[in-house]
Amino acid sequence: MMASWEESKNSLVGSNIEFVSIPDGLGPEEDRSDLKKLIVAISSSMPAMLERLIEDFVRVNGNYSRISCIVVDVSMGWALEIASELGIRRAALSTFSATMFALQYSLRKMVDDGIIDCNGMPIQKRPFRLSPSMSIMHTDQIFWSKVGDFDCNKVSFDYMKRFTQAFDLAEWWLCNTTYELEPKSLSFLPKLLPIGPYMGSSHSTRSLGQFWEEDLSCLN
């Protein structure tokens, strides 16, 4: 990340970004590809670490008013709970599609409609719609039901339920999409504001929205 930032920051006019990290609860020798272990560690350690980071900032800068807003990736929705408790304004940012955001936000509805059980697993293989106006989906496309074995799937689903409930604490929902691409999903969630695509800069031909090298072959 730092190498990519050093390479691209000269292209960003007036940039003033500082990277600060907080631990995820796992030691440097532990396997972060073990999703179940990673989720448990994040849930048990990162909320307190974020709160401590904010308190350290306030101690140096005087008061919470210096923090105008916290923008939270939706997969870390617990950070919205911290910001809400501290009286800081909050935005939730979806880096994926509005349709995927709608799917995650509808967990309770999907349980009530008999699409998934209380562990997030499809009750039967079948197509479904989140609303009459949205496109048909299929239970085979429910990604959280196939991230690993049953225990891993359940831990992932429980974690997702928690951060999904926190979405309502955000004053703004932001999504990397455009209305022209996903009008039905954005109509289903009118609070969701399309601010995409944030993939590059007018000052550079290089994508600044990610840290992996671009594969431009898909443009062909």
Q: Would you mind describing this structure in some detail?
A:
There is one protein chain. By secondary structure, the chain is of the alpha/beta class. The protein has a domain at 72-213: Glycogen Phosphorylase B (Rossmann fold), CATH 3.40.50.2000. The protein is 35% helix and 9% strand. The chain contains 7 helices and 6 strands; from the N terminus they run H-H-E-H-E-H-H-E-E-H-E-H-E. The strands form 2 sheets. It has a 4-stranded parallel β-sheet. The protein has a two-stranded antiparallel sheet with strand order 3-4. Helix 2 packs parallel to helix 3 (78-85) and helix 2 (35-61) runs parallel beside helix 6 (150-165). The chain is globular and about 55 Å long. The model has no long low-confidence stretch (mean pLDDT 86).
